[in-house]
Design brief:
It comes from Paenibacillus paeoniae. The protein is an alpha/beta fold and 319 residues long. The chain contains 12 helices and 10 strands.
Length: 319
C-alpha cells in the first residue's frame, strides 16, 4: 500500500503545524539548524515531548530533519563545527524517532570534485558509522550550491548521478542515500526521471521544488547566468525556483517514476519561489536556514503547491 505523504520544509512552531494541518499536509521536514527551534545542542527532552505531542495532535509526521552546511569547508574551524553539530542532529533524530536526516555533501570550492572525494569519504564514513548505530539514514541533496555572482564557487559535490555513483562506491553504506530535488536537475540539464530509475533504491527523501527557465535571459547570459548584475532571489538570473505546478518540472512523470521504483518516503515542498515572495518583506539571506524562515512567511505558494501535488499523489488524492 502506498504511504507517500505530502508536506513542506519549515521551522517548527505551533502556528506552522496548525497551518499545515488546516491545508491538508500530513508531514513536514523540520529545520534542525543551530538557530532553529530544534537546536540539536540545547533542546531538552521536555521541550521535545511538547513538540511531538503537538505534531501528533495535528497528525503531522516528521519526514526528515534538515541541516545543510559545508562539512568540507577549507576553513577548518567551520568544517569541524558543522561536523560536530551534524552528529548531534543524528542523536536528535534518534530522540525524535525520525528516520532520516537531510544534508549536503559539502565541498572545498578551491578543489575539483575529484579532489574533494577523499575528504568526503573520510567525513561521511564517520557519519555513516554513527547513523548505522542509531538506525538513521542520511539523505544528501543534489543542489550544487553555485554562487554565480562573485566567484562561481560550488559548495556541494553531490550535484549529478555521475558523482552519486562515486560517492556510494567510496562510502558503501546502506544508510547513505539521496534527497532528490528535481528543480536542480532541470536547470543543469539532467534527466530526473532517468536519475530516479537509476538510483531509486538510494532515494530517502524528495524535495518538491519547481523551476522556471527564463529562456530570453539565458539567450543573453548563457549557462553561467548574470555576472555584472546580481540576480534577484535565489536563482542565476535565467532560472528561478517556483512552487510545484508553476514551473517546468513534469510532476506526473516524476511521481510515476517514484512509484515505479517503490519509493517509501515522503514528498516535502521546499518553498523558494521568488515570484510569490515578492508580496512579503524578505530580510537578508545569509545561509540556508534563513531561506526556510523567510520564505515560509509566504503561505500562498505552499497552498498552491499542495493543491497541485495532492491530485497526483495516490495516498493524498484518496480521502
Amino acid at each position: 500500500m502506498l504511504t507517500m505523504k505530502l508536506g513542506f520544509y519549515g521551522e517548527y512552531s505551533e502556528e506552522t503545524v496548525r497551518f499545515a494541518a488546516e491545508v491538508g499536509f500530513k508531514c513536514m521536514e523540520l529545520s534542525a539548524w543551530p538557530d532553529s527551534s530544534l537546536n540539536a545542542d540545547t533542546i531538552t527532552d521536555k521541550r521535545l515531548a511538547e513538540i511531538q505531542k503537538d505534531l501528533e495532535k495535528h497528525d503531522i509526521e516528521v519526514s526528515t530533519l534538515g541541516f545543510y552546511p559545508n562539512y568540507l569547508d577549507p576553513n577548518k574551524e567551520e568544517s569541524e563545527k558543522a561536523q560536530r553539530y551534524f552528529l548531534n542532529v543524528l542523536k536528535l533524530a534518534e530522540r525524535m524517532n525520525v528516520p532520516v536526516v537531510s544534508t549536503f555533501a559539502g565541498r572545498d570550492p578551491y578543489k575539483s570534485v575529484v579532489d574533494n572525494i577523499p575528504a568526503f569519504k573520510e567525513v561521511f564514513s564517520r557519519f555513516c558509522e554513527e547513523a548505522e548505530k542509531r538506525n538513521i539514514r542520511i539523505a544528501i541533496e543534489n543542489c550544487p550550491m553555485v554562487e554565480n555572482y562573485k566567484l562561481q564557487h560550488s559548495l556541494n559535490i553531490a550535484h549529478s548521478p555521475e558523482v552519486w555513483e562515486v560517492m556510494f562506491q567510496e562510502v558503501p553504506s546502506d544508510n547513505l542515500g539521496l534527497e532528490i530535488d528535481p528543480a536542480h536537475m532541470v536547470w543543469q540539464g539532467i534527466d530526473y526521471v532517468q536519475a530516479i530509475r537509476e538510483f531509486g533504491h538510494k532515494i530517502f527523501h524528495v524535495h518538491a521544488k519547481d523551476v522556471e527557465i527564463l529562456h530570453h535571459v539565458k539567450a543573453r547570459t548563457g549557462q553561467y547566468g548574470t555576472l555584472f548584475t546580481k540576480a534577484d532571489g535565489l536563482g542565476h538570473g535565467w532560472w528561478r525556483g517556483r512552487t510545484p505546478g508553476w514551473g517546468d518540472v513534469n510532476w506526473q512523470k516524476l511521481i510515476s517514476a517514484l512509484i515505479e521504483v517503490n519509493y517509501k518516503g515522503n514528498i516535502d515542498i521546499e518553498h523558494e519561489d521568488d515570484v510569490f515572495v515578492k508580496n512579503i518583506e524578505i530580510a537578508e539571506i545569509k545561509e540556508e536556514s534563513d531561506i526556510v524562515k523567510q520564505y515560509a512567511k509566504d503561505k500562498s505558494a505552499l497552498i498552491l503547491g499542495y493543491r497541485h501535488l495532492s491530485r497526483l499523489i495516490p495516498s493524498a488524492a484518496i480521502k
